[in-house]
Design goal:
This protein has 377 residues and is of the alpha+beta class. The chain has 3 domains: 205 residues, Cupin (Jelly Rolls, Sandwich); 52 residues, no CATH class; 82 residues, 3-Layer(aba) Sandwich (Malonyl-Coenzyme A Acyl Carrier Protein, domain 2), CATH 3.40.366. The chain has 12 helices and 19 strands. It has an 8-stranded antiparallel β-sheet with strand order 2-11-8-13-7-6-4-5. The protein has a 3-stranded antiparallel β-sheet with strand order 10-9-12, with no helix packed on it. A hairpin with a 2-residue loop joins β16 and β17. The longest helix is centred in the middle third of the chain and has 15 residues.
Length: 377
């Protein structure tokens, strides 16, 4: 069951090594009672977020074979009165970016590298509400916070799997159920990429947290690398001062082709490639610190916390460089122990901070607090 006090937490019912060996990206795992502290946010808070201009929100209506309808936010308040009492779901993306206390759940996933974490999406469903049978291309932990949801698990799918005709929703045309679970508050379902699943709210006020993981697209990464390398490079033109008379002017000679390719590939310098990778992985899904940290609320739920990282902040270490929300910060040896702590987790006790704080680190932390990346409690 959920715990009305304390911050949101999740605990694997087996060792991290066993989970990674037997389940991660291999097969689903249902974990009854594995999460707690999920009593907030409530339905009204999620609905309020869906009204905000910069919040990504959707409403999906439908059941069984359909018809299915998708509406994109931001919404007006009147939309909720028009939805009726069943068969609809509100989805709010990246709730952890806006509500920092929600983001603190991610500290429970330290059995995986932090750069792999993407965000926490939340859904509120009326009775019968669902997003339809589908599959995701990334790992996901589906955490039941309120109400009950019946999950049906199907086969592994890919982009060739048959889907219902719909201009925006990628719903499966057929999903034979291989397993079935009813998730109550505190229950967690892990799904690897590609596994078909269909969740339906058993009652009203059904709230589910969805912890999604980054699965970097190599095409997008290559685009980032190319952009970083081009920004670093001087403009150079092809030259051929030692040109010989061609045997056939209509043919691209081997020497010319090799010189062209070599000249282009020479722009891919290792330092720029490294920067591109760290910049990309440290850039949050959504940019901006416009939602303030509710420090009083977090302090009430856990009085031992002295400092929290804002929910929209990503922090990755590269040697003596800290990449914070896509920007590099050079570190001194005095600052490094502090930043290691800040990058390893999202909330910090006074005792943990005192153990690593030195004058140079205190100055850096003060600057990051002033910029809104961290909040003292």
């Amino acid at each position: 069951m959920t715990d009305a006090s304390g911050l949101p937490t999740f605990t694997l019912p087996l060792t991290p090594a066993a989970f990674l060996r037997d389940y991660w990206q291999k097969k689903p795992l249902f974990m009854p009672g594995a999460a707690s502290g999920l009593d907030e946010p409530d339905a009204d808070t999620l609905a309020g977020l869906a009204l905000e201009e910069n919040v990504e929100a959707r409403i999906i209506r439908g059941a069984n074979a359909g018809p299915w309808e998708l509406k994109q936010g931001p919404f007006e308040e009147t939309v909720f009165a028009e939805l009726g009492e069943r068969d609809w779901t509100l989805l709010v993306q990246s709730v952890d970016h806006y509500l920092t206390d929600v983001s603190l759940l991610l500290d429970s996933f330290n059995f995986l590298p932090s750069w792999r974490l993407e965000d926490i999406m939340m859904s509120y469903a009326a009775k019968g509400g669902s997003v339809g049978p589908h599959f995701d291309r990334y790992d996901v932990f589906l955490i039941q916070a309120a109400g009950s949801r019946r999950w049906q698990i199907g086969d592994a799918c890919d982009e060739k799997t048959a889907k219902l005709p719909h201009p925006e929703l990628k719903l499966l045309a057929d999903m034979p159920a291989r397993e079935e679970f009813v998730a109550n508050p505190g229950d967690v379902l892990y799904l690897p990429p590609g596994v078909a699943h269909h969740g339906v709210a058993e009652d009203s006020d059904c709230i589910t947290w969805s912890v999604g993981f980054r699965a970097p697209d190599y095409q997008m990464l290559m685009a980032e690398i190319a952009g970083e390398c081009l920004a670093d490079a001087d403009s150079e033109l092809f030259t051929d001062a030692d040109r010989q008379v061609p045997k056939d002017p209509a043919v691209l000679a081997d020497g010319d082709r090799q010189q062209l390719i070599r000249g282009a590939l020479d722009l891919l310098n290792p330092a720029a490639i490294e920067r591109a990778v760290y910049r990309w992985l440290s850039t949050p899904r959504l940019d901006g610190l416009e939602f303030a940290v509710d420090d009083a609320h977090i302090r009430q739920r856990d009085p031992s916390i002295a400092l929290v990282r804002h929910g929209s902040v990503r922090l990755i270490l590269q040697g003596n460089i800290a990449w914070l929300n896509g920007e590099p910060h050079s570190l001194t040896e005095q600052q490094r122990p502090l930043v290691q702590l800040l990058a390893r987790q999202r909330c910090y006790t006074r005792e943990a901070l005192d153990a690593v704080l030195q004058p140079a680190g205190s100055e850096l932390l003060h600057d990051w607090i002033e910029q809104g990346f961290f909040a003292p409690l």
